[in-house]
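F.,

This is the one I mentioned.
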């Protein structure tokens, strides 16, 4: 992807490397901590800011494949009307 920016912190670079190595299996926060990331969420945020698309599912994070269709937009649940009790 040409819009990707370089990662500036060691944690960001490590997170990207770990995600690339994990492939479609992805990583959990515990996996990332075990590999030496002190703040996995912050490192993943940096990876996203650099232009890499992430996919989160079932407590695991993975790099989104470039040929994957875009995710479905979030749909708001229907509003519920509260009726007064009689």
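My design for it:
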């Amino acid at each position: 992807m040409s819009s990707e920016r370089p990662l500036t912190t060691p944690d960001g670079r490590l997170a990207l490397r770990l995600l690339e190595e994990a492939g479609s299996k992805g990583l959990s926060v515990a996996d990332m901590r075990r590999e030496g990331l002190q703040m996995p969420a912050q490192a993943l945020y940096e990876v996203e800011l650099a232009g890499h698309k992430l996919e989160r599912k079932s407590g695991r994070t993975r790099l989104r494949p470039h040929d994957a269709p875009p995710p479905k937009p979030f749909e708001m649940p229907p509003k519920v009307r509260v009726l007064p009790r009689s």
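The CA atoms of residues 8 and 14 lie 11 Å apart.

Talk soon.
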